[in-house]
Every structure is written in C-alpha cells, then in structure tokens.
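Quick question, first post here. What does this chain look like in 3D?
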Amino acid sequence: MSATHTNFWLIRHALVEQNARATLYGVLDVEICPHTLESQRPNYAALARTLPANAIWYVTPLSRTRRTAEAILHAGYAPTELHVEPDLIEQHLGAFQGLPHADLPDQLTQPAHPFWPLSGTERPPGGESMQDVITRVGAAMERLALRHPDRDIVIVSHGGAIRAAIAHALAIAADNALHLSVENISLSRLQRQDAGWRVISVNTHPT
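> Answer (accepted):
Ran it through. Tokens below.
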C-alpha cells in the first residue's frame, strides 16, 4: 500500500475590531476590523495566489474565520464551499471571557505566561486550558487527515487553535506552544504522513 500524506494550510483570521482587542474575547463572536480588512486586500490576494487549487476549506463556527476565508476567495481564489469544523475553534475562556485584560491577574491560580495572559495549564472556570485546546485540536487534525488522505486542506482558524495544531504536530507542552507567534492572516503549514507529522512553516506572510 502506498504512503499517504495530507497537507494543512492554516491561516489565522483577520484582526478583530478595537474594542474586542481590549478584552479576552475567546469564543465570543466578535467582529473583525473593517478598516484592516480593506487595507489588507493585497495580503488576501497573495494568499489566494499561494494556496493550492482544489483544496478543501474549513472554517470555525465564528464569523471572523468565515469573513476572512471569504476575503481570500474574493481576492482571487476559485469559489469553493466552506465547511465548518467546531473543534478548530479558539480556546474557551469560560468565566474570563469578555473581561478587560487588566481585570484578569487577581483571578488567576497560576502565574501568567510571558506571552499570553494564562499559563498553558490554567483552566478558567467553565472554560479550557491551552492543554485542553491541544487535545481537542489535535484530535480534529488527526480526524481530518484520515478523512482527506493525499489532499490539501485550508483551515481558517484562530491563534490559539493554530498554536495547538503545531503543538500537536511537535508533541510539545502547552507552555511551549504559547511561545509560538501566530499573527493575523499569517500562514502556517503542517503535513501528516504515515510516519507522523511534519512542520513545514510557521507564521509566514506570502507576497
């Protein structure tokens, strides 16, 4: 039996609007910034040129991923169906969702991570830790690889979920994953082979 591999093209959604950025918005369905969406048209066109033709596309249930995907399609990628995968959604911050960043420290049970308000194992009341996200997203990535062998899969998702996917591929802990930089509308690439996962690139910006 010949070896198979599935290529994943992971894109973080566009920048959200300014008021949302002042809070821990997690899985709240906040709007993306209309001015940034307009000014970054060339970036969407570059992604449309870079992404493989005839790929299978996935977004999450949150509108910011769908709107970002639609911007890429409108910038020159051929029309395609956008499938929804709930398990690729952002970290659920439970009782912390919607809090201003400045209001968080008094409620933590562990020291904050240097590059994220929560440590990798801090689980907000009613929410998820980053380690929980790695488990959830990793299972979804394995499932999609089995469902679509030898295909290209474009996923428009969230910073936390993309870090989780990379952490799953590298088998690293949550605190290590939070050191990864995943910028808005950046592209990261993973490949699932029979022998395991490979990381092709992280946080790139096609031109």
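The domain at 5-204 is CATH 3.40.50.1240 (Rossmann fold).
The mean pLDDT is 96.
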